[in-house]
Design goal:
Number of strands: 19
Helix content: 25-40%
Structural class: alpha/beta
Shape: globular
Distance between the termini: 38 Å
Keywords: FAD, Flavoprotein, Membrane, Monooxygenase, Oxidoreductase, Transmembrane, Transmembrane helix
InterPro entries: FAD-bd, FAD-dep_Monooxygenase_BioMet, FAD/NAD-bd_sf
Family: Belongs to the paxM FAD-dependent monooxygenase family.
Number of helices: 14
Strand content: 15-25%
Pfam family, one: FAD_binding_3
Strand order of the largest sheet: 6-5-14-15-16-13-18-17
Radius of gyration: 22 Å
CATH architecture of the domain at 10-62 and 124-193 and 309-391 and 411-426: 3-Layer(bba) Sandwich
Organism: Parachaetomium inaequale
């Protein structure tokens, strides 16, 4: 409801919160993606009053497959996010195969994630995951305003200014508006656009029955590994989602290896009407890849992959606004940890805001930055290492990779192929921190 329509104004709400609600804050979150919803859930659990502003008019079947690793799952469980009826597939682990003949290079089982890391490892459809987060946020009384595009900010109030002029005020603004964040530059004092990594991806969903009817393909569904075909300047990753109803497959390749029209300036995503580009680019890959291409159907997305150099300032100089998720650390998808890092951001932000006042807010936000930046940056860098490792041309480097990929050693280029790194990534508990003034 807009200001002046029979409800207390947003500014009045903020003032009332500061005066009458003890240490509870009025918080405006910009963006109702995964990161924004996770932040809303965590903060609402502590009694803060949350409003999310989302430019999209409605939520629907957006996105494709994704993974929820144990370091995220354990937080969801504590926060009462109900995954009981979420259509999901429990991952066996990662399987790496050669691109041209399908020869097995290495299996990296997850073991028993609940015992080893304290949480399940799930493969899901992004829209299904978004739905359960949305439901939990609404249960907790979060106000979600769809079709509300933020055009500007008043950082000193702080406030988000909507298209049309309405001002939505609070004690804190959390900016979770994604990799192409319009606000990030204002935190840095200079432009900081995301970096084109040189890779492009095609994301495709295939009905499982199409694979189950083929003896060569059915194991991709019945044995739920994340299968990665590694080849020169490209790789293909596939895994079942929605409890095995759908096979999610992502074709990744360097833009320099493409044989089709490049993206034009300003283009980041395109809808591809047929599979001819994939047929040309992945000619010579093994038969299962060819069959996945044949089943790819029409009108699927092709987009450029971006990440970002280290962001210096997660906290606005006003001390009343903070960045979260892809807005501050967009990542290559190869670590499958972008959404999990946003979940960890939300968990640490919640801990930092527990018991805070408006007077101590800036200091708590800077502690959030100090705690989260080193870990998020390390995961970002690991994604770039995987980009190179997956795309090695045939030759000495590729043969060396294929040797080390089988060993539990820090020289293994696959991040979670080394137990110490795997434990650091999946065993982490973002809420296991002490708030020290």
């Amino acid at each position: 409801m807009a200001d002046g329509e029979g409800a207390p104004s947003a500014s009045a709400s903020a003032n009332a919160a500061g005066q009458d609600s003890g240490n509870k804050l009025v918080i405006v979150i910009v963006g109702a993606g995964l990161g924004g919803l996770l932040a809303a859930i965590g903060l609402a659990l502590d009694g803060h009053r949350i409003t999310i502003l989302e430019q999209a008019a409605s939520f629907g079947e957006v996105g494709a497959g994704m993974r929820i690793p144990p370091n995220c799952f354990k937080i969801l469980r504590r926060w009462g996010v109900n995954t009981t009826y979420l259509k999901k597939t429990h991952s066996n682990g990662n399987r790496f195969v050669r691109y041209d003949n399908g020869a097995l290079l290495a299996d990296m089982p997850h073991g028993v994630p609940e015992l080893d890391f304290g949480g399940s490892y799930l493969m899901v459809h992004r829209a299904d995951y978004h739905t359960v987060l949305l439901e939990r946020a609404l249960e907790l009384g979060v106000v979600i305003r769809a079709g509300n595009r933020v055009e500007d900010y008043d950082w000193d109030v702080p406030a988000a200014i909507l298209q049309g002029g309405e001002t939505v005020r609070g004690d804190l603004v959390v900016v979770a508006d994604g990799a192409q964040s319009s606000a990030r530059a204002e935190f840095q004092g200079h432009e900081l656009p995301p970096t084109d990594t040189g890779d492009i991806v095609y994301r495709i969903l295939i009905p499982a029955h199409e694979l189950l009817s083929d003896p060569e393909m059915r194991d991709l569904i019945s044995q739920p590994w994340v299968t990665s075909w590694c080849g020169p300047e490209a790789h293909v990753i596939g895994y079942p989602v929605r409890g095995g109803e759908v096979y999610n497959v992502v074709f990744c390749c360097s833009k320099t290896s493409m044989q089709d029209r490049p993206f034009q300036p300003g283009e980041n995503k395109l809808v591809i009407s047929d599979n001819s580009e994939l047929l040309r680019r992945f000619a010579g890959w093994e038969s299962r890849v060819q069959k996945l291409i044949a089943l790819s159907g029409k009108d699927f997305l092709k987009w450029r992959l971006y990440d970002l150099d280290l962001v210096d300032n997660w906290v606005h100089r006003s001390g009343k606004a903070v960045l979260l998720g892809d807005a501050v650390h967009p990542m290559l998808p190869y670590m499958s940890s972008g959404a999990a890092m946003a979940c960890e951001d939300a968990a640490v932000l919640r801990k930092m805001l527990s018991g805070t006042t408006r007077q101590s807010l800036a200091g708590r936000l800077h502690k959030y930055h100090a705690l989260r930046q080193p870990r998020a940056s390390k995961v970002q860098k690991a994604g770039r290492v995987l980009q190179e490792a997956y795309h090695l041309p045939d030759g000495e480097g590729q043969r060396e990779r294929d040797i080390w990929i089988t060993k539990d050693d820090e020289k293994n280029p696959i991040y979670w192929g080394h137990k110490e790194r795997r434990d650091w990534l999946f065993g982490h508990d973002a809420e296991d921190i002490q708030v020290v003034e």
